[in-house]
Amino acid sequence: VAKMRNLVLVAVILQLALIEGKTENYEFGDIISFERSCPCTDMTYKHFAIYVGDTKLDGKKAGQDIFQRSVDLLITDLLHYIRKLYCIFEKLEDEHKSRSKINIERKDNYFDSVLKPGTKEEIIKRIKEKKGKCGVYNPINNNCEHVATYIRYGERFSLQNGTSFEKKFQEIDKARAAKKNMKAKLLEIKTEMECLICRHKKG
Ligand SMILES: *[C@@H]1O[C@H](CO)[C@@H](O)[C@H](O)[C@H]1NC(C)=O
């Protein structure tokens, strides 16, 4: 019984540590990824944001602690949907309310071992550059991951690593490098966007 109690205690402590660590672990400029599931398929994709914490920045309101290409799910038609995918400051806690069945959040500075992250000044400059004007959303060339990697590293990438779209993004990269088959690959891809549209339809 004592052993059992100890186990439970350890579990509780671990859990507390996990919950507490969640936001306190982030530093300015960290990439946060949210692995999410599509509501009408088993596919997964990753949403990305940049942690900015309580650093004072132009246009950032109290409580807003992330910068991201936001997804507005209440828009009624595709064109408006696309236009509303602005890059703005928002609250991390709102991302915890995602309706996705899976929503695995983690610090995801995945190119730190090969690329130098920008300084705080550089990151602030890139946020200013992208705020409200990060171009038309495109799941393949200009998605939330491109924005996050640009802000942190100054270079745009989308790997969708560990998701249902990972292989497709690798194929697109290869096709792009070889400068051929691009069109076929683009037609072939089942995109993050399809997933989001589906989510939208389901309300
Ligand atoms: C991709 O994900 C795998 C685990 O699924 C991990 O080992 C690898 O480091 C990741 N690569 C990048 C670039 O994030």
TrEMBL record:
Domain LRAT: 37-160
Domain of life (superkingdom): Eukaryota
GO MF terms held by the record: N-acyltransferase activity; phospholipase A1 activity; phospholipase A2 activity
GO biological process per UniProt: N-acylphosphatidylethanolamine metabolic process
Pfam families: LRAT
Cellular compartments per GO CC: cytoplasm
Signal peptide start-end: 1-21
Entry keywords, A to Z: Coiled coil, Hydrolase, Lipid metabolism, Signal, Transferase
Coiled coil: 165-192
The keyword Transmembrane is assigned to this record: no
InterPro entries reported in the protein's UniProt record: H-rev107_PLA/AT, LRAT_dom
Family designation: Belongs to the H-rev107 family.
Name this protein carries in UniProt: LRAT domain-containing protein
Organism per entry: Anabas testudineus
